[in-house]
Write a structure and sequence with these properties.
This protein is mainly alpha-helical.
Amino acid sequence: MENLQQHIAVNRAMLYSCPPGHLYRFALLHNLAVAMYMCSEETGRKDDLDESIALYRAALHLQPPGHPDRSAYLNNLAAAVQTRFRRTGQMEDLEESITLHRQALDLHPPGHPNRPASLNNLAAAVITYFEQTGRTEDLDESIILHREALDLQPPVHPDRSAYLNLASAVQTRFQQKGRMEDLEESIKLHRDALDLCPPGHPNRSASMTSLAEAMLTLFQQKGRMEDLEESIALNRDALELRPPGHPNRSMSFGNLANAVGTRFEQTGRMEDLEESIVLHREALDLCPLGHLERSRSLQNLANALHTHFQHTGRMEDLEQSVDLNRDALGLCAPGHPNRSLSLHNLANAVRTRFEQTGRMEDLVESIVLLRSVLDLCASGHHYRPALLNSLAVALSTRFEQTGGMEDLEESIVLHREALDLQPPGLPNRSASLSNLAGAMRTRFLQTGRMEDLEESITLHRDALDLRLPGHPGRSTSLNNLALTVCTRFGQTGRMEDLKESIVLHRAALDLRPPGHPERFESLNNLGDSVFTRFEQTSQMEDLEESIDLYRNALDLCAPGHPNRSLSLNNVANAMSARFQQTGQTEDLEESIGLHRDALGLYPLGHPDRSASLNNVAVALYIHFEQTGQMVDLEQTITFYRDALDLHPSGHPGRSGSLSNLAEAMHTHFEQTGRIDDLEECLRLYEEGANHVFSNTLTRLGIAVRWAALARSQSHTSTLKAYRLALSLLESSLVITPTVQMQHKILSGKNGYPTLASDAASYAIENGEVAQAVEMLEQGRALIWSQMRGLRTPIEQLREVNKGLADRFLTTSRELESLATSSESKPITLVAQDRATGASQKLVDEMYSRKRRLASQLEGIVAEIRTTSGFGDFLRARRFSVLQEAAVEGPVIIISHSEYRSDALIVLYDHPPVSIELNTDFDHDGPLLVRNLKAALQKVQTEPNGCDADIRDVLGSLWNQVVSRVVDKLDELGIEKQTRIWWCPTSILSALPFHAAGPIRVVDGIRQYLSDDYISSYTPMLTALIDARETKPEIRRHDIGRPQLLVVALPDETIPLVEKEYRAIQKDRDFVECLIREQATREAVIDNFRDRHWVHFACHGHLNTKEPFLHAFQLYGEDRLTLLDIIHSNLPNAEFAFLSACHSAGQIVDRAFGEVLHLAAAMQFCGFRSVIGTMWAMADDDGPFVAKEFYKRMFAEEDSPELGFKRSARALRETIQRLRKRKGMTVERWVNFIHIGA
């Protein structure tokens, strides 16, 4: 770019030195024009392009007719003005481009070597003109020009391929399901009849009219433009055969008007619509009062004017349409065959007038008219489905005005009836599917019932499947489906939905070229989806594209256009967003001005006024943040209050409005210090978080903000806010189908991962330590908690009510199967390809099924709680119950929050004890995790440095946390060598608390916590309680000699795995091994079910992007993933030793507190005790650890202690032996941990 600017500067200087008349002036003008054109292409600046065009004109002026280079200059100027047309849409530029190309072609007569290029250039300009106007003569000329250019390039010409750009010819556009053979036969017969009526035959015009009508019907089914054009041509020919005075001339006018009007609906050529109106007026003039066809002619003209209004916004057209429809109805007395049609048309016209004026009497009249006409069309009448749809739409419109749910419910009933009357195969079924889908989406927006949204998506997909590429309604179906999946994105945050929405909108826009009457809608909707993606990803190219799309849409909405206010708002929002990215104040000023213009177009009572008020408020608030002018903040609050008034209780948008006003009031409080502002702010947050008609995730965000603000101001509502936030977090997961989707919610940038710790820290501050424990249990490891609830033992319930217990079990299993299913991959769509597929439909079905099953389970659980003795069934466990986790030793919870960090000691027979950690542990804790990770990366390259760094981490962990816990344990009388359990939260789960130290040095040997206590871990207190429960499936005589399954995969990287499994198998006939090719995924899963104990000796893999794909490497390409393990339900499981890398390791992400690792999955599926590794393990350690460990496990067969409970002590003793081995490093022995009972 710098070189180009230098080139421009040099050319300007040279041009200034060459006065008019100079020999080289024209060359310098041309060179500077080329440079400015290149600059405009780089910068997009219109001024550069305008200057380029002016320079090209000046240069051309110096090349008079006859000059040998004139044609080249004509072509260059033509290309430049055509480029300006593409940027501005000014038709005069395109027309000039065509004129210039024609002049250039005239200078290249047949035989000229440059004629092919000129032909091709002109053809390209002419087809561009066709795309704007739809004039078929332009298309035909373009084809002729391209063909001539091609003919001038012989087959062997090297440039022939460049001239194969023939403009679009007749295309096969539409296909539709249904019985087409009837229509095809009808057309064939009409053609045969016409062949029998040669020119001059008296019935030729009638045959032409009949064939034209059939071809129009064929077009409506298949959408082939040649069918429509043939229909128009046949109608014109028929009209020519019916001169003035012919009795059927008015009929021909009407038929031709309808066909031309249909072409307008496809091309958007206003001249077609204008011609259609003119033709209908001609027909009406030939039907004076008393004429049998006058009422039909009045209706046709009224409909055409109605359409004209919809595209111009001219109220006089709409008023005339209403008057004409009333006149037509006056000619159709009760019993007249056209009365139902006339009533229907008048009803639609007055409803449209209501949409413009807000006069409720028009809407009421529309509904009354539609009910009366529906009475005239009993069940079985071919017109009934269309009437049902119109009445449903009118009722839905009244619902939007009054909020009367009975109108919306009746609307849905009517749409369902209409759909039932359009069974598969009928041509209008797709429209009925689409209409019902729209009504279901509307009900979702009111009630938040996700099953309505899921049904809407399914219906829209079904409609799209019936509108194959070429169908005239395909773009509408693409658009509707895109809007609905984008609505679901707003509820779930699934980026796949947003991506699909963008792809669908692009496909719809491709089907709506310039001039198409629905192009505005597609530009606007695609702009919305792209803008939403910008909000998620902050990619500036998305923002810039959305601005371009919105501006293009606004260009299609001149003052008076019914959609202008919407378009103004969209451009304004995008400009505000760009200001926030770039800081350009002119963008913000433009945004405010546009929002005010839009608000002026939304009078009181308009359904979109609340959104517009909100938009102005947002823009003014941003302006306040930039300028500090209190007048902006005061106006912001006023606008937010006005918007809230339009969202009464029960409106799904009320929580959002309450939150907006609350944030503004908070800012006002910060500026003024008025306590009343703070109190109002907190009241607004509380109401928004509790408004059950709003979206759960929206309410959750409000509750989190409420809690944070209330806490910062030491407000009494803080604890209430935290409790509600934790409840809403649970609820948001309940309605989310799969564990993968739940993980996405928990790992988002929203503060949810720290919510439980933040809430607990507040409870601790207020001396409510037991409540803090309850909060940590409620808000952590939520995915495991949700899944564990689906596996609740129900033996006691079965004894009381077997049927109820079985219903609970069946529904829970269905929900679990759904939750652990693999999420469908997002589909990719290309314009003109089918915008649907089994994979995406599967996701839709998963959402719908999850809602249904969750609702069923909720009802079953409510019924169980009414059963005597089961009032707390599946409720969050109270501390008195959680305390049971410490029955065999204390559990130490490490709570980590930005507010404070604490160690909470849970004891079986004592209130919980809180130990406040250093105030800077909020920072130091994550720092220790990062230092540990950095140290482990040195294992291969700097083993000595690695050991020193890990010792530093262990020392810091002892000094900052563990030493204080040990002191308190001593104070509480907890003896050394007893068992203790660690339950760290958040990112602290990655730290080896069990190996903290050294705590002392004895005879030159460092001693660590593991020398004084037998440490285990548990992700939750509930998990530890469940692990200790007696399983009726385990027989006592099996405990001493459990069935042990060994899965071993030795290879060249871990050759000692063979030695490891042989050490386990030696002299033990109760050990079964799956080795190498025996260890397939299917074999491992099958053998799982019958074994008490299992030992894995293989590679372990962490998946950095998808934790549910953490896996054990099995034979070949097989892997046993974390999700596979979750699927298993192992009633016989007791103990698992995971001698594989990372088997108890996690990826560091925002959902670290979910404890998603392989060892936790093994515990969840039934194993009471699990040994795993926190990071990569040394191959040398496998055989030694296995030998020593199992020697201890099997040496105590007569011990009263259950076998799996010996595992923690056996591991501690094994690791003490491992530490004494020559060359042993810290990272190797610290790696092994015990989880569970």
